[in-house]
Amino acid sequence: MLRHCLLSRVLHGTYLIKSLLFLFLLITSNLWAGLSPSKEEQIKGIIANMESAYALVEGYRTETEVNVYRTGRPVETQRFLYTFKKPDHMRIDMEDPHSGMLLVFPDKDGKVLVKPGGKSGFLKFHLSPDSMFLRNSAGQRIDHTDLGLLIQNIVHSLTDRRRGEIRISGQDDRIVMEVLAEDHFLSGVRTLYQFSIDKTRWLPVAVKEFTADRILKRKVDFRNLTTSVDIPDNFFRIDGGNAEDGRPIR
């Protein structure tokens, strides 16, 4: 009786493992449903190149411009210097609007330090990274803004969150991929994405977001992206200590 019970458990466990394995294979095989073998290999190659390129980056900085649109018309523009150091240190030096404002994540308590008047300003706030005051129009949290997470979201958009065909084209030194997918930050929303990837560095340099019927919602440009930077730890310490200034680290 005991042997029969143990045997039943083993067989049930084996069946469960096989079922999970079958489900995994079914899911992964559907990631590329509707794509030709050549396009599937092309996309897999682009993904591999992006992931390999980002793995070699320890830190980077980029002049970022974010344009927000409503019913296709521009309503807001932000420009800032964005600096990131692995694993999770980021600093934003605002240029427009709120010129001089600094945002650093994480502070010693894991929050976002905000100094409206810059490094020398006396006002400061410590906000949770999921604070609504820090989320942008797309619902994106400040701690979900680095290129590594963008690459992960691109991969999801091309695979498990894809809801349409993938179009690939070339523009000068860029590869542009367009796909309808579940929105990166807004649940229940489908967004048509255009991802521009630098052919030399294999890192994203621009993102455009449209509604499903091709009305522009937002575009983000990463200009003068520099990855060969040595970023000292005190660059992210603006709340006391000897913080570095915001302009070029070479």
What report would you give on this structure?
- Helix content is 24%, strand content 36%.
- The protein is α+β, with helices and mostly antiparallel strands and 250 residues long.
- The chain has a single domain (44-236), classed as Lipoprotein localisation LolA/LolB/LppX (outer membrane lipoprotein receptor (LolB), chain A, Clam), CATH 2.50.20.10.
- Strands 6-5-4-3-2-1-11-10-9-8-7 form an eleven-stranded antiparallel sheet, with helices on one face.
- The chain is globular.
- It starts with a helix and ends in a 24-residue tail after the last strand.
- 21% of the residues are buried.
CATH class, named Mainly Beta
Q: Low-confidence parts, pLDDT < 50 over ≥5 residues?
A: 1-13, 22-27
Q: What is the number of strand segments?
A: 11
How widely separated are the two ends?
Answer: 74 Å
User: So, the CATH homologous superfamily?
Assistant: Lipoprotein localisation LolA/LolB/LppX
Which helices and strands occur, and which strands form pairs?
Blueprint: H1 2-30, H2 37-55, E1 59-70, E2 73-85, E3 89-96, E4 102-105, E5 112-115, E6 125-127, H3 147-158, E7 162-171, E8 174-182, E9 190-198, E10 204-210, E11 216-226
Antiparallel strand pairs: 1-2, 1-11, 2-3, 3-4, 4-5, 5-6, 7-8, 8-9, 9-10, 10-11
Helix pairs in contact: 2-3
